[in-house]
Amino acid sequence: MILATSYPFLEVFWTMLIFFAFVVWIWILFTVMIDIFRRHDTSGFAKVLWIVFIIIVPYLGVFVYLIAEHKGMTERTIKQQKAAQEQMDQYVQSVAAKGDPAEQIAKAKQLLDAGTISQTEFDQIKQKALAS
């Protein structure tokens, strides 16, 4: 019970708030560092200067970078997300089943004749093949 009286609720709340703010700042710091290394429009020397600025004056460096490069960060992030989406789309198309409806129906008929699928399953496959 001594702990409850020596550490009131508002101090617990304040500690949680400070911890949360620190975690958010660390997240922003990593985001800025990742963006600095991801950039292709600046030289290595400019990247080193940004890193040194962020190391010497951490809070100010991160906030100055966010103010100075916010538009570029957004554009690079959107470009990276579009590239990842296109890569995923290409992968899905490459592994997706390709073939004409007649081929799909013939394969389903073979499965039906072998007893692997039922007549209702064959009809469903046939409807899907004809619909696409």
In brief, what are we looking at here?
With 132 residues, the chain is mainly α. It is 86% helix and 0% strand. Helix 2 (9-38) crosses helix 4, helix 3 (44-56) packs across helix 4 (58-95) and helix 5 runs antiparallel to helix 6 (119-131).
Number of helices: 6
- Which stretches are poorly predicted, pLDDT < 50 over at least 5 residues? none
Largest sheet descriptor: none
List SSEs in N-to-C order: HHHHHH
Overall pLDDT:
88
Explain this structure to me?
- It is elongated and about 75 Å long.
- The relative contact order is 0.06.
- It is mainly α and 132 residues long.
- The chain has helices at residues 2-6, 9-38, 44-56, 58-95, 101-114, 119-131.
- It has 6 helices and no strands.
- The chain starts with a helix and ends with a helix.
- The protein is 86% helix and 0% strand.
- The mean pLDDT is 88.
For this entry, give a set of tags.
132 residues
Describe the SSE topology.
Layout: H1 2-6, H2 9-38, H3 44-56, H4 58-95, H5 101-114, H6 119-131
